[in-house]
Amino acid sequence: MKVLLHICCAPCSIYPLEVLRERDFEVMGFFYRNNIHPYTECRQREDTLIEYAHHTGLRVIYQEGYDLEGFLRSVVFREDQRCRFCYYDRLKTTAKMARRGKFDYFTSTLLHSKHQNHTLIAEIGESVGKSEGVPFYYEDFRKGWKTGLEKSKQMGMYRQQYCGCIYSEKERFYSANG
């Protein structure tokens, strides 16, 4: 069974990749980049994934281009719903890629993060899976959060401190109290 794994960053892919391989899935990664800001952050995440993929023998499709403007146009004035849009865009793009590549399933490393809305991810994944004709594979990879974190530290991986979008970057650094 072939599964296309949407990857937001290398550290979040460690545990899901191990689990999927243990379940005898043939895993290929897909790095989606339009939501990651600034571009230097995007490159740093991509470079870390390239190194990790080489180390683990993971084949990865790297999204071409960098349509940050398209991402921003889609969420501006709807910032309170930005995660919904972002999940949808990443999962829809992954599902389309999975359909074209004749994968049996698609899934996401977003399911590894304890900071993401799993209910919403599963809902959107199921919906786009039906519309694209490729089932969404849901598994709660959060149980391996500490395992993935420790392994990423042992490997000396770059580990970002925000999801990637400009809004989460602001939340990370800005405090209303100065």
Description:
- This protein has about 180 residues and is α/β, with parallel strands linked by helices.
- It has a single domain, classed as 3-Layer(aba) Sandwich (Rossmann fold).
- It is built from seven helices and four strands, in the order βαβαβααβααα.
- Strand 1, helix 1 and strand 2 form a beta-alpha-beta unit.
- The longest helix has 19 residues.
- The N and C termini lie far apart (about 50 Å).
How is the topology of this model organized?
Elements: E1 2-7, H1 10-22, E2 26-31, H2 39-56, E3 59-62, H3 68-75, H4 82-100, E4 105-108, H5 118-132, H6 145-154, H7 166-173
Parallel strand pairs: 1-2, 1-4, 2-3
What's the quick description here?
By secondary structure, the protein is α/β, with parallel strands linked by helices. About 50% of the residues lie in helices and about 10% in strands.
